[in-house]
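Q: Got a minute? One more chain.
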Amino acid sequence: MPAAPVLARTNKKRKGTEDYTSESIGQPGPSTKRGKGAKSASNGDASSAERKSKNTAVFVRLPFDATFEEVVERFSKCGLIEEDDEGEPKVKMYAREDGTFSGEALVVYFKEDSVNLAINILDDAELHLGEPSSRMSVQRAEFGHKNDNVGGEAKPRKVVNRKKTTKRIGRMQKYVYASIIMIGSSTIR
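A: Always. Here it is, folded:
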C-alpha cells in the first residue's frame, strides 16, 4: 500500500507562542526567561521582579559521632547528592571553634524533589539503626542574604566559574539519565 501524500506546508507565522511552563500558567504576558531584553514590567518593583530559586538543600541535626561517610550513605538513599568542583558530594558538616563536629550539617541534592523525600523519610529517623539516641532532625534549608551588613561591613560576593559549573551539572545529568535507563531496562526483563 503506498503512503498517503503529504500536504504542502504553508509558511504562516503563528498568531502567538504559548508558554506552558509551570510559572506562567494562568498568567498572561511574556515568559520568565532571563536575558538582555528581560526587564521587570513594574519598573523596579522588587516583589514582582524577585525570581524564586530552587531549594535543593536540607539542614540536618545529627549525633556528634556522625561521620561524613555515614551522612552521605544515608542521605543518598533519598536522591542524588550534588557534587562540588572536585567531584565530592556537597555535604557540609559544621564545626565548632575548637574544630569538633557541632552536630549540624547541610546536604545539597541535585533535584528539588529529593528534599521533600529526605524530610519525609529521614526526619526523626535514627542515623544508626537500633540506636534511639542517634535520631536526626531534617528540615528544608533556609538561606539568608550573605551580603547583609554584618558589623557595618558588606562581604564580597563569591565569583562562580560558569564553565566549570556547567560541566559539573552536565556530568550529574548524565549520571541521572544513565540511572533511569538502567532502572528501566531492569524492570522490562
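A: The longest strand covers residues 101-108.
Q: Perfect, thanks.
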